[in-house]
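Dataset card, provenance and construction

Sequences and ligand SMILES were collected as paired inputs. For each pair, a complete structure of the chain with the small molecule in place was predicted and serialized as structure tokens. The example below shows a pair involving zinc ion. Curators did not alter the output after generation; any descriptive sentences attached to a record were derived from the structure itself.
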Amino acid sequence: MKRLLLVWMAVYLLASPAWAAQYADQLIVIDCGEGHADDKSLWSPGENVGQPFDMANNCYLVRHEKGWLLWDTGLPDTVADQPGGLRVEAIRTTWRRKQKLVNALSMLGLKPADIDLIALSHLHPDHIGNVALFPQATVLIQTAEYNNPIPLIGLPFLPNQSIKKIDGDYDVFGDGSVQILSTPGHTQGHQSLLVRLRNTGTVILSGDAVHSEESWIRQWVPAKNVSVEITRSSREKIARILLTEQGQLWINHDVPQSAGQRKAPDFYE
Ligand SMILES: [Zn+2]
């Protein structure tokens, strides 16, 4: 009987990754800029024509016993030196940056050289601005994204950058605590990040799988996404995991949600 119980427990542990998974030590939210768009309908086709749309833009730092992972690198630090901000006419948006990423890291007692891994949700300019600050870091990116950058912008990597191309989901530290989730639709190889924390629980960092809580509820799909169907199925995947793990979805560009979050040097654990 005792042996049967042990076998049952072993099967349960193996079959239930949430139970077996370890935790990341900290998740730190870094303000990496903000956007002011002139026409919200670009993110909600057929609705909100001519209405303004404000976006937060965060980077996230994950502390794990095996190293530091930076999720997205935000707008270029040089945008902080441009008083009028950076205008991107294609999405009728002006981006600004109050603080530089390098200064935010220094507030945490970190130098760019301390970052071991960078993972990019996708290759749009508001998410890849400072990759060149981290020549020593290995970049985790979906193969489909690497192969499909925005034509005039291209890849942000340095010539000798170490790049790990991923096809699908990926367990970053091998213990289930931090997992890349393949969530295409906004771009060909878009990805999101699941982080398990001891006290906060499971958090999924959206990337641009969705741009606001309103968009999540209304199921708006931006006109520039590569596929409406694939976007929706990626969101269903996120929703399933959130439900299973009672997790939280942190939507990068959502202003009210971001305003309510503790920022660096504070942290979640
Ligand atoms: Zn974005």
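Derived descriptions for this record:
The chain is about 20% helix and 25% strand.
The two ends are 39 Å apart (CA to CA).
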